[in-house]
Model the fold of this input.
Amino acid sequence: MTHERIVDARLHLLSRQVLDADGEPVRAVDDLELVGPDGQPARAGAEVRVGAILVGPVLFVRLFGGAVPVSRQPRIAWEDVGHVGTAIELTVPSDRLDADWVEHWLRDHVVGRIPGGRHDPEADG
Amino acid sequence: MNVGDLLDARVLGPDGAALGVVVDVRFALEVVDEPDDESRERDREDPETPLSAHLGRDAVGGARLVGLLVSPRSGGSFLGFERTEVRSPWPIAQLVRRRHRGTFLVGWSDVAEVRTDGAPVIVRLVAGFERRSPAL
Done:
């Protein structure tokens, strides 16, 4: 049987840590994108759901004002969310997320080329 | 539209009268898989286990927008005090509650229009909107 749990955005969701399926920290929740049924734009008074968690370069926006264009904001689809508690836990590993592309790009193109950069210290036990 | 657009938006009544600011946005999380009492009991018996490895955790589905919490006085956070039965620490609870007295929840179906083109964002309510209790 399904039921609903009530949460408030500021109290329970915003700024919470996002963990991937392996428990690794991904990002923190900066904003939540609202969508209507079938992914249409959200409309006042009509049914609205959370479409995605937005994680993005908000530091510059906070310092200098303005807003990040929606198309430039990395997002994590809400379908990937498995549990909402002290942290927000995803059901997918972070490698599958676009939100971490800068880190993955640097790992593959910069850190990986440094001698010893492909060594996994955790694998040594 | 994002939650960030709605937070701190000015709320106007159907006649254009200022009612306050949006201090929070409320959602209903669909709980698709609820743990049984046995799993929760096992978590309690083993306090050393990290939270992420607990068995007694629910799985959530979609998050439906329920409504907006509107405070007539302060746009600041109320730390959850007036939404729960938490009464301590006493001086802070008293202060925050006093600052946010008159806060109400308005259902999303009672929202007529959200104007995001200007700053601040304006939320206009329908005629005959209902002031609901902000308690969680």
